[in-house]
TrEMBL record, chains A, B, C, D:
Ranges where the 6-phosphogluconate dehydrogenase NADP-binding domain occurs: 5-160
Classification via SUPFAM superfamilies: 6-phosphogluconate dehydrogenase C-terminal domain-like (SSF48179), NAD(P)-binding Rossmann-fold domains (SSF51735)
Residue span, 3-hydroxyisobutyrate dehydrogenase-like NAD-binding domain: 169-287
Species of origin: Luteibacter jiangsuensis
This protein's UniProt keywords: NAD, Oxidoreductase
Stored Pfam families: NAD_binding_11 (PF14833), NAD_binding_2 (PF03446)
Keyword Oxidoreductase on entry: yes
The protein's name in its UniProt record: NAD(P)-dependent oxidoreductase
Domain of life of the native organism: Bacteria
Length: 295, 295, 295, 295
């Protein structure tokens, strides 16, 4: 394998594990994070710590970023100057879950500078990021993809190429996150129904997740609902609300009615109104139970 | 194993396979079906063919029934006289998906006659019934369950005991069928979203069912949506509509708001209005696409 | 005016006022009610009190009934024998709000006996019934309508003929009651929104009901919401829930998706779950406020 | 009456009529519009035509603006420099329907400059604007309101003071527009129901708008539905969609679930997907009929 000069911006719960895997794979990784502690930890594993986001771009062949949302990407990528610091023909592979609108803006900003751009959003929680088992959906022009795909190897259990338009990868990610929210709301309502008839959520979900719904999403979130284990959150209600907002925005631009997304919007809003922003979003089961006045 | 004298009423796509497995397990099975052809086929495998539903009850230790809905059960079980033909202490194990109200009526009708009653609804399609791989949720008084559980062995991949009140098994079945409908609608809306942004349903669903949603329900129905393979139906839209109606009725009696079930009610109604009653209910994907005016 | 021999079954809050107006108009009215007190009160105004529902039919030219729901009509009209007691060519004018299915059954039961049938459901609350200001929607065959229309004069502020099929009048009534429920939910959600932004419901509704929404439904129910005056109920939540159920059934038979009716079903269910069955159905405003966690 | 020196920005269908009424009331009005034709027309009635938006502010005591949306207000008021051209203690009365967020920004921008600010959104269509019969909801600090209220006289049939925080007036306007949309969707679904049962929308709506729903909103939009008179639009579907979006945004910031607004979002989106952006928003009746597959 070719050891490459890589930049990595964004070392939160997800990014720290991913940058670590790139180091373990033998690459020369220069890192930066808004709060420096995470960067220091990676320095111990051999990373170079840049003084700011811009400098991460100097001399690297591929820049990875794993940021939280549109605002973080706008600040650390578009406004920081890193795109101007990157060498010509360098490629930026962006792992964030973003709005379709911002992705279009990023594609243009990279093209204008002769830089490659690959959208590579990920499915998986922090433990899966650390163990290199993510599912990564990737899309971008062929030459950029060729540079990036080998770098996704140490990060992913599986890579899903989605064509040459980066927007396509983000749309798959957004639609997938919507399906996760729908799975949670489905278990929330079904559990409220069985509880009202004397069957505990745990007993019901055990049957479902042990048979027809034996899939990671249902086992993970169904387990949290069964145990009423909503804190600390694996994925916060406020982030779930943001993700459903991304789905609704993407739906709106293309005039796609999504009544399940509308229901999710309202039940998530109800959870936020109840002060549950920091609970795991499987706590939508509490909203369903409250509406039925089940203790 | 004890060979037992068993009755079996209802030899449709599901029941024929189940009765066949009881015969193969070495039991003496007496069968009856409204249209006689299916009974004749089982006679070749060693079944006795009763002349009417009532006579099935004569001299059997356990009566199985696998009927389509409330109306079929009312006719073949409550009105046929079979409960009066059954010997004292015989047990009826009812595999139908029924309303909670009817189950309560059945429990009382059996108790009044000193008969055991086990509700044992099943999850699985006809091919799974034939191969003895069903997931069966069973609930009833301890002594009735003791008689019935060995008979479920040749029918099921797994049996899930749900307590001593038969209603609990039906509630689990109803709630599970609701979750299947919700899974389909979720894939329908998500696919409409990705299609509107240029990503075919097939590409999107391949990622989902190959990772986070790698479960039988999603693989089966996601496959039908990806291939637009809605006919002949595995499970008709009209039956899906009936099942969601059972969930809504069960929710109504216990005052449980279920907004996802309400959305499903309306999208299924729209499919029926479009003349799609006989398509597989995964054709809800056509409704979502139509609403977005995607060809 | 011709004084006619009239029967009147059902002397609840609505029926008592209506029977009284027929007496005042100079007709010979024979009455019956399940609880006799209301009949006694009308006897003082000159009514004859029949000993049972059946006898009301003897010798009258027109039978009026003002009953609460399908079950009451089935008992007092179909099962009581009154249809067999009515003289040939007598007409029954039924003011109840009924399911479309029952109306079809009633039409057939009357035709079979050579009796006329007019569906004449009413809009208006008990005070309006007493003052003879109801809005009455009436439909039935021409000869039956000819007999009945003069009798509606003392009952109604306005009569709206709706053709020769009685079902049409009931459909208008059902759809109108749905619109009333939708008006209430609309004010409930709008008020929760303004309250959350510091504008009391009273101030907001005053503007609306004093301008764009200056109509009886909005003034009446908006006033109750503004004053939080939910008890004693003018029209109970449980009856509102029943009415929305009639709309949903009528929609289901003809495959008409009604998402607003689905929302109403769920918010009404939430109110019932909260123990608010006996509050006025304008208390849907409490449900909206609760969901937003507004005190 | 004191003749005042007034500026007026925004001379669309609504603003032209309003500016005209201020001229007729004897005030000295300086006008500006992005497309000059409307300004020329008012010059004939005695208006001064400013060369740009900024100059409108020079020397006036009160500036009125009647602009279409957030973007138009940002351009013509915040970015044009007019606020810096206004004399100290001048008051700006803004008639636009705006997001709560922008109103907060405007309040701060005016306070910082020592200018008064009154939010005075209006209810009524262009013909009502021309005849001076608008319903105007107004809120702002007491001294600013004192200057502005006399100027609203020639514009309004009625003025509704809503306190000293301009946001409150906009919230009332947003909530009122939501109620209009809900009224339309309610008539759309009710009409689809009656049509499916053989009662034309026209017959049904005639009863409703002639009795319980005898209010301007229902008579106007009900009339359009009854006649299927959707073009040319009185108020376009695309503008209705924008207004429901404002309600949803306002609801989101305060965590107020609004399921009726969610349904409206999806049915309006469906209309836009069908290419109906330029039809009157009463054409939501076509969406309801289409979903039921009624011709």
């Amino acid at each position: 394998m070719n050891s490459m000069r890589i930049g990595f911006i964004g070392l939160g719960a997800m990014g720290a594990g991913m940058a670590g895997n790139l180091l373990k794979a033998g690459h020369a990784v220069t890192v930066w994070n808004r709060s420096p502690a995470a960067a220091e930890a990676l320095a111990k594993l051999g990373a170079n710590v840049a003084k700011d986001a811009r400098s991460v771009g100097e001399g690297v062949q591929v820049l990875h970023s794993m940021l939280a949302n549109d605002a973080a990407v706008r600040a650390a990528i578009l406004d920081s100057g890193v795109l101007d610091a990157l060498p010509k023909a360098a490629v930026h592979v962006n792992h964030a879950t973003l709005s379709v609108a911002l992705v279009r803006e990023l594609v243009e900003a990279h093209e204008r500078r002769g830089l490659g751009y690959v959208a590579a959003p990920v499915f998986g929680r922090p433990d899966v990021a650390a163990s290199g088992g993510l599912n990564i959906v990737a899309a971008g022009k062929a030459d950029a993809m060729a540079k990036v795909l080998p770098l996704l190897e140490p990060l992913a259990g599986k890579v899903w190429p989605m064509g040459d338009d980066p927007v396509r990868a983000n749309v798959v990610k957004i639609a997938g996150n919507f399906m996760i929210g729908a799975a949670i709301e489905s278990m929330a309502e079904a559990s409220a129904l069985t509880r009202a008839h004397g069957v505990p959520a745990k007993d019901f979900l055990e049957v479902m997740t042990g048979s027809l719904f034996a899939a990671p999403v249902f086992k993970t979130y169904g387990g949290l609902i069964a145990e009423e284990n909503y804190s600390p959150a694996g994925f916060k209600m406020s982030l779930g609300f943001k993700d459903i907002g991304l789905a609704r925005s993407a739906a709106e631009t293309e005039r796609v009615p999504m009544p399940f997304a509308s229901v999710l919007h309202d039940t998530l809003l109800e959870a936020l109104a109840a002060g549950e922003a920091d609970l795991d979003w499987s706590a939508l089961a509490k909203v369903a139970a409250r509406r039925a006045h089940i203790g």
